[in-house]
Each structure stands twice: as C-alpha cells, then as structure tokens.
Prior knowledge:
Layout lengths: L2 H12 L5 H12 L4 H8 L3 H22 L1 H13 L4 H10 L1
Amino acid sequence: MDKTIYYNQLYDQYQPLLTKKQQQYFEDYYFSNLSLSEMAENYQVSRNAIYGQLKLIEKKLDEFEEKLQLAKRKGMILDLLKEKIDEKTKEKLIDLL
C-alpha cells in the first residue's frame, strides 16, 4: 500500500490522539502537499525539525495501530460489506464504522 494512503487511513482513526501541532504538521504535509522547506518557513523552524516531527508522527500512528488495530478492523468490515450479506447485517456493519 502506498505510504501516503496508509498514513492517511491511520490519521483518520487516530487524529484525536495527536497534539494540535502534530495535526497541523501532518495535514500540511499529507493533505496540503507542502514541502519540508515550505513548512519550515511557515513555522520558522529548521527543515530537519519538520522532518523529525513527521517521522515521530508516523511512528506514533504505527504504534497506535499496532496496539488498537482500528484501521485493520475497519478494512476487515469493509471487505465483509463487499460480500453477499443481508441488508440488515450490512446496515449494522456500516453503523459500526
């Protein structure tokens, strides 16, 4: 799976567990597609500081997923929804998401 897609999926699940600054960095890099240099200029820190923060955020997201496995479970539920199941069960699964 593409790294960007993977971390976007994890971010969808675990965003509230990150600090506001970490959320800003993640969104600037992954959603707004800003370069490390642009972010460093915007936040008035070094490019290396931005890089380090992004790596820390990725590590945290990986740790959250390793422990909680919410993204994995969501994927499993979505896979089940592709199978032939009755509408009542499908609605219950969608509500769980």
